[in-house]
């Protein structure tokens, strides 16, 4: 959840200091489609003050974890983890679950199924232009919202999140792939029956 080394903490976008009401991660309640935020600087039982790391919730018990791949900071290793994956001090970190913004047209279950297709992959990553903020927004809304000269910049050309997802996009099709700006495609995993059954916990 929170990067365990100072170097890794620097690899997530630094945003303006903000305070959000929350609880400790061990007790925070979330469900599929939520975004869970935790401070990058570990202060067990402390206030929920940014900058934050973000993870996407697939269900009430599963989260999609992004970390820079070992040996290659320009790639992210994507894993599905449970709440118990996080040990001390992470599980006692302040945290909050953020619901999707309905004005941005969240994609709901499509994002959850897509997240399951990403699990186990190594995909392009950049600490400022293709990070946890961009990935969680993409899974929540089917697009990213970065702006130039802001603390949440646009995605880079190499980021694989350029293909927008809308109401007609079939994310479960084997032909669906992520794309960067140059239309390079990224093969995804096929879904299993248990991936669809897991939506019952949505």
UniProtKB/TrEMBL annotation:
It comes from the Eukaryota. This is Uncharacterized protein. It comes from Bemisia tabaci.
């Amino acid at each position: 959840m929170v990067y365990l080394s100072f170097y890794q903490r620097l690899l997530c976008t630094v945003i303006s200091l903000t305070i959000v009401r929350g609880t400790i991660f061990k007790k925070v309640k979330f469900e599929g489609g939520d975004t869970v935020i935790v401070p990058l600087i570990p202060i067990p039982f402390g206030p929920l003050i940014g900058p934050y790391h973000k993870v996407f919730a697939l269900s009430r018990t599963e989260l999609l974890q992004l970390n820079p791949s070992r040996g290659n900071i320009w790639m992210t290793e994507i894993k599905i983890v449970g709440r118990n994956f996080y040990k001390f001090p992470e599980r006692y970190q302040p945290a909050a679950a953020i619901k999707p913004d309905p004005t941005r047209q969240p994609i709901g279950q499509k994002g959850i199924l897509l997240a399951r297709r990403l699990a186990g992959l190594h995909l392009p990553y950049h600490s400022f232009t293709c990070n946890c903020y961009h990935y969680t927004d993409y899974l929540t809304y089917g697009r990213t919202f970065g702006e130039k000269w802001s603390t949440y910049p646009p995605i880079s050309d190499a980021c694989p999140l350029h293909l927008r997802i809308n109401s007609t996009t079939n994310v479960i099709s084997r032909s669906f792939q992520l794309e960067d700006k140059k239309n390079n495609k990224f093969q995804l995993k096929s879904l299993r029956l248990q991936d669809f059954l897991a939506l019952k916990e949505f």
